[in-house]
């Protein structure tokens, strides 16, 4: 299918934007209403835009009528508490689908690898329209935590680790990458996640903030990687065996196929 895609993602599938001065803003995310919604670990979400403006986080294709991750409706109770976060999501001028703040509790590298998943943003997306990508604006200061991206879920040689200090901003084709966050803690991590539709508006925004498609990985001990890989293989094998004992098939996603 021929979607409108940004040239900025053609080579690597992600861009890192200029860092935002997060310290200049109030901590609006602490005032939001959160709902329980599992994604890549122990999480809650505060929806800013949902399918119909309700305080929920379900995929737009799970509503009636089902549709793709576009034309989100602002959740008034939360955007009233977070006008700056709303304005940041709107700044590119691109179509917005789901928009929400994630609260993620600390985890391990192995847990992050186990929870790697691909998004399904473009389900029901009409041919010839803009491809949907996701922006991640780190709100809390998690300089020792990393967004992990892999084009091959089980190949550490494809791994990209992007540091997440306060104000880190990145845009990722999350349908291309297996992704999750390794959050070392000790406090919860907060991040604004926005689904944007590719097109000239998003292209201009990426150019304005000097989108860089080449991240330099922080060093990571080979033993940590090897042990993480081994734990994931063991947990997936145990899960597959438990499902087989119940006459069910393993979908291959581990615990969570949704971000």
TrEMBL record:
<protein>
    <submittedName>
        <fullName>Uncharacterized protein</fullName>
    </submittedName>
</protein>
């Amino acid at each position: 299918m021929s979607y409108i895609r940004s040239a900025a993602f053609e080579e690597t599938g992600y861009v890192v934007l200029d860092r935002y001065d997060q310290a200049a803003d109030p901590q609006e995310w602490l005032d939001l209403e959160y709902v329980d919604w599992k994604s890549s670990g122990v999480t809650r979400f505060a929806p800013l835009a949902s399918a119909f403006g309700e305080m929920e986080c379900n995929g737009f294709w799970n509503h009636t009528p089902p549709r793709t991750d576009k034309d989100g409706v602002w959740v008034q109770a939360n955007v009233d508490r977070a006008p700056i976060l709303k304005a940041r999501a709107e700044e590119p001028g691109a179509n917005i689908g789901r928009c929400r703040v994630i609260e993620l509790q600390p985890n391990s590298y192995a847990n992050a690898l186990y929870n790697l998943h691909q998004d399904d943003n473009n389900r029901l997306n009409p041919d010839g329209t803009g491809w949907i990508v996701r922006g991640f604006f780190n709100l809390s200061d998690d300089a020792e935590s990393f967004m992990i991206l892999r084009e091959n879920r089980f190949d550490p040689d494809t791994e990209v680790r992007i540091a997440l200090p306060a104000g880190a901003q990145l845009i990722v084709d999350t349908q291309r990458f297996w992704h999750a966050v390794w959050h070392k803690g000790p406090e919860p991590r907060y991040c604004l996640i926005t689904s944007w539709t590719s097109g000239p508006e998003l292209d201009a925004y990426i150019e304005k903030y000097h989108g860089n498609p080449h991240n330099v990985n922080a060093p990571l001990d080979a033993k940590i990687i090897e042990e993480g890989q081994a734990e994931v293989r063991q947990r997936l094998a145990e899960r597959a065996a438990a499902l087989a004992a119940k006459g069910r098939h393993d979908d291959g996603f581990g615990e969570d196929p949704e971000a």
